[in-house]
Amino acid sequence: MDFFDHCRYSWLMASRKTLTLDPIACCSPVRTDVLDETQAVLLANSFAALADPIRLRLLSHIASAGGEEVCACDLTEVSGRSQPTVSHHMKILFDAGLIEREKRGLWVWYRLVPSRLDALRSVLG
Amino acid sequence: MDFFDHCRYSWLMASRKTLTLDPIACCSPVRTDVLDETQAVLLANSFAALADPIRLRLLSHIASAGGEEVCACDLTEVSGRSQPTVSHHMKILFDAGLIEREKRGLWVWYRLVPSRLDALRSVLG
DNA sequence: TCATTAGATTGACGTTCGTCGATGTGATGA
DNA sequence: TCATCACATCGACGAACGTCAATCTAATGA
Predict the structure, then answer these.
(1) Minimum CA–C1' distance nucleotide for B48
(2) Which residues lie below 8 Å from residue B86, measured CB to CB, with a gap of 6+?
(3) Do A31 and B114 make contact, defined as CB atoms within 8 angstroms?
(4) Is the dihedral of CA A20, A27, B95, B107 positive or negative?
């Protein structure tokens, strides 16, 4: 699934703040076409989610779990930040569509959305 | 050339602010290993360069030129921003290693550094 | 030499971001 | 019912960011 297809999924529109701003958040690689303003805003938003070292480490921790879920309870230790700060960063990753969350009992579990990472990769290609 | 090799080039160390912070700015894909703190800081810096819509459009404009150089004199019109603002953004793209610059006479010419874009792509893979 | 030009730098501004203590929310189990 | 736990939200703070007018720098050509 490329970025174009990905953006068509209406559930993304309904569940994530970033992309609900514009349902047509799709673009070809930066080396193929010049981005229009709307595409640029949406893409910048996605890359901004990756533009913080704490978020990159949190994402990398989840992405390296081999498809397994990761408990939010482990993430304060991984990041070295307070619980509210981790929660803040996870929300940004979630809003960017890079991770999914599921609450089971008291714990929240996160897993990667690989297609979203692939989508961003394809934009750079 | 992957991200690892790329970072070894000493001329990058000498000419670009971002990477001079740490000569060992190399990392495997986020799905393979958990990033250490140094890698995360350097990568976050690279993605931050892509985290602004004006910079994305400037970069896309240069990247879409098919290997040709682009004159700085055209970029205020492309971006719809003032000359100092464009200069500021180009410096950030340059410091991130995404573009090269060359001054000839009064004009400055920019071209893409494709390997740098490839390097970031490989981190997402 | 000097006026002109392209682009970089400076300084100031309002805005956004990362951070954490305090507090809110909702599930758990006794 | 109520204390406890995991996580989210709020509010406040300083730092970093995007922006542009004013100015500086260096190349040009007369």
Answers:
(1) D17
(2) B58, B72, B75, B76, B79
(3) yes
(4) negative
Query: Is pTM beyond 0.70 here?
Result: yes
* Largest Cα–Cα separation, chain B: 47
Chain D positions with an atom below 7 A of a protein C-beta are 5-11, 17-22, 26-28
> Distances from the Cα of B76 to the Cαs of B65, B71, B99, in angstroms?
17, 10, 17
Cα–Cα nearest to A25, from A8, A48, A2, A1: A8
- pLDDT above 80 for B104: yes
pLDDT at B77 over 60: yes
Q: The tokens of B15 are what?
A: 């000419």
A63 to B117: CB separation less than 8 angstroms, yes or no:
no
- Sequence-distant (≥ 6) Cβ neighbours of residue A42 within 8 angstroms: A18, A19, A21, A22, A25, A27
